[in-house]
Amino acid sequence: MMNRISLSKRENIAFCAGSVIGSRHSFTKRLFNTGSGIGVALSGLPFDDIRELMSNLPKADEQAPVLAAMRSETMSAHTGAMPAEKEHLSWLASWSGKSPKVERPLMALFAGTHGVSGQTGEADTLDAVTRLAAGGSAVNQVCASQDIGLKVFDLALQIPVGDITETAAMDEKGAAGTIGFGMEAIAGGVDLLGLAAFGRGGEVADAVLLELAAGQTREAALAHAGIAAGGPQAAQVEKAVGLHGDATGDPMELLRRLGGREHSAVAGAILAARVNHVPVVLGGIRAWVVALLLDQIETGACAHCAVAGGEAEEFAGLVARTCAMPRVLAGFGQSSEGMQAALAIGLLKGLAAAHDGFAETA
User: Hey, which of 116, 326, 335, 346 would disulfide with 339, CB 3.0 to 4.6 Å?
Assistant: First the structure.
């Protein structure tokens, strides 16, 4: 379904390009061949399979965080109290099911294009992908310095999803296939996953999803999505809300009608990570919107995720509170290209190393 091309060993980056158009929903079979112990009967209806998967998500490990907390107490007796360290490492232990250790971290970025009139931004999005591939983005530098793997997923950029002011972004098969494509983010083995997504025009989808799926007011939805009230994008949001408002109450339907391929791919990556006991760090508005959407489908679906960056009183804080997710690097701003998520991975990796290698006696 996709070709992987290693562009630079020094940067440890893989460029993943491939069409997800017309792909079939074989993701469930691939996902459950991982030995997770969870099974789903294929119903023939892609979204029914995803809903069944989400109703059977594994719970947090109960013993590992207790042991991690004891270890943190021992270490803090020598280093001084570090409440955030204890919280972060207990969270890592809970969702990995083992003593905190980060050896194979990965930052995955999903790029998509949107068909909203005047907002396709194909050239802008391709420029961003090209910059990432050349190693010139901020996230490249963070990943290289912290030995974090980096994958950039090109989600059929030359074929924008439908204009959501006039039609649905995708059909059910296309959305489900893209969710399956996103699940490939953990292929090859990952023990801590960072996720972010970008693509011009996606902010209109973000705002409409916030209003219809998360119950935000129009004013709040526009502000969170970075759209100026009274501008052309605000008018597009109003038109899309009117067209798709009948799907309110069905988050999966809203995802396929309004979300870009990057929204669906992030959702797939989050779910695959949960099933495979991989903690996740989410960076940027688009990934946070997806987390809210998944939490609407199944409360606690993103408890294995942490919010990277953002402000407590703004959207990042809202998402963390709503989805019961911890926050890492609060106050570090937000970026659609994943810099904050990569920085958070570096912090968690360092804390885990200190925790793992600490010797109480010389």
Answer: 335
| Plot region of 265 (φ>0 → left; ψ -120 to 50 → alpha; else → beta) | alpha
Of 175, 181, 197, 198, nearest in space to 253 by CA: 175
User: For the range 51-59, what are the long-range contacts, defined as Cβ-Cβ under 8 Å and sequence gap of 24 or more?
Assistant: 51/252, 51/297, 53/28, 53/271, 53/275, 54/271, 54/294, 54/297, 54/298, 54/301, 55/298, 57/271, 57/274, 57/275, 57/298, 57/300, 57/301, 58/274, 58/275, 58/277
Which residue stretches of the chain are H helix?
27-31, 46-54, 63-79, 83-96, 122-133, 138-146, 172-183, 202-212, 218-225, 232-244, 251-258, 261-275, 285-297, 315-323, 339-357
CB 332 within 8 A of CB 343: yes
Instruction: Render pLDDT for 265-307 as a digit per residue (tens, 0 to 9).
Output: 999 999 999 999 999 999 999 999 999 999 999 999 999 999 9
The class level of CATH for 3-34+61-357 reads alpha beta
In angstroms, the CA 297 to CA 114 distance is 24
What DSSP letter does each residue of 276-323 carry, written as one string? TT--EEEESHHHHHHHHHHHHHSTTTTTTEEEESS-TTSHHHHHHHHH
Instruction: Give the tokens for residue 176.
Output: 């489900």
CA distance 255 to 152: 22
From the candidates 85, 184, 211, 337, which is the catalytic residue? 337
pLDDT digits (tens, 9 = 90+) for 241-274: 999 999 998 999 999 999 999 999 999 999 999 9
Is residue 337 flagged as an active site residue?
yes
